[in-house]
Amino acid sequence: MKGVLRVVLLVLLLGALAGGGYWIYQSQPAAGTVSEDGSYTQVVTAEVGDLTASISVVGQLEAVQSAVLTFEQMSGTAKVQSLEVQTGETVTAGQVLATIDPTPYQQALDEAQNSLQAAEDALSELQTPPTTLEIAQADVAVAKAQLQVETAKQSLDDLLDPDVPSLQTAVADARLGLTQAEMNLQTLQQDTSSEEQISRLREADAEAWTTYSEWAAKVHSESDDAYHAELTLLYNKMKDAQDALVTAEVKAQLTLLQAQMSVRKSQQTLADAQDALAEARAGGDSLKLAQAELAARQAEVSLEVAQLQRAEMDEGVDATAVAAAQATVDKRQLAVEEAEAALAGTELVAPFSGTILETHVGIGDPVAANSSVVTLADLGSMRVVASVDETTIRQVSAGQRASISFDAYPDQTFEGEVLSVPLYGTLQGGV
Predict the structure, then answer these.
(1) 152-184 burial, b for 16+ CB within 10 Å, e for fewer?
(2) What are 69's strand-pairing partners?
(3) pLDDT tens column, 19-41
(4) Contact 350, 93 (CB under 8 A)
(5) How far is CA 141 from CA 34, 147, 244, 428, in A?
(6) 0.85 cut: is pTM over it?
(7) What is the pLDDT of residues 106-121, one digit of tens each?
(8) For residue 195, what are the contacts with CB-CB under 8 A and spacing of at least 6?
(9) What is the secondary structure of 332-360 as a DSSP string?
């Protein structure tokens, strides 16, 4: 909206010095006179009055408070999820005007919070002195690592300098054990007592079954208690015979199976002893030697780590490590704050109360951080911005009265005052 700004400037004011009166001074007649030096003098009457000057310029009407709102905190691009206002609608400060999808920003906040929690836990652990239990556990870890080192070194020494006589003794012992296992198996296979026992149990089982079946087939009445008592007794005897037969058969099979397994185990023990003796006589297996050396080195490293951790407990809190951990916490706290701000930025909120002058996007439109979404202005406080050229701007100052008229209201004049004058101007067309 354009209007004409008329600034009224007071140029000269002459008045009485006291009581608000006035005076008139008149000396000579109005006719002019010529002095001896040739100059011409004429006396006129001075009267009290106001002299004013004014300038008229064309300006533009605008709101004192206005803004083009954007999703400033967003990264990349996103689609408008909701648009809560329309052009011409009045809104209040803090009201949500539009939103974008908050899901990726919520995920980023969750990740930042998890990272912060981990950093805080690490800092707390560094700041907390070890307990008696933790010290005892560290001592146990050191002792265990030392035992592993000794065991690994002994295995390596056995490979580097094998005890051949001991290996020969192991072969002999394994061969003797195999012979005994084979003899035990052969004895079991030749023993007929178990088969005879099972045979007798089978005959007893068959006899008990026959007796029970014959008694069960007899004609009887339902009220014959003696018959039913005898039938129950015969049934129990039959079941006992069956159980005894099954138990004997299972026991015989298990005993034979254990003897066979003992033979196979003894055979494997003898084979391992013979292989070990052969490797020792041949200078050892290079692969096993390499594996033993690696195991010994790993055990030594584990011992060094355990001893270092135990030593750190005696040294107390490491100031350098605490400072580094605190710096990590501060950095991740800042990341959480930035993630929270980014999540809050998924809602476009009115920074002040006003009227929606224009909506620049619709639902589903892609936007970026610099994309205009809505234009908001407080129409309750307006001002006119006008350009004044450099030859007259020196006559304008803040606080001067101004009369304002608009083309839309030609018969009305609005009163105002100059709010401010800029300290420097702009160059337009060389002017």
Answers:
(1) beebbebbeebeeeebeebbeebeebbeebeeb
(2) 374
(3) 333 333 444 444 556 666 666 67
(4) yes
(5) 127, 10, 55, 83
(6) no
(7) 999 999 999 999 999 9
(8) 252
(9) HHHHHHHHHHHHHTTEEE-SS-EEEEEE-
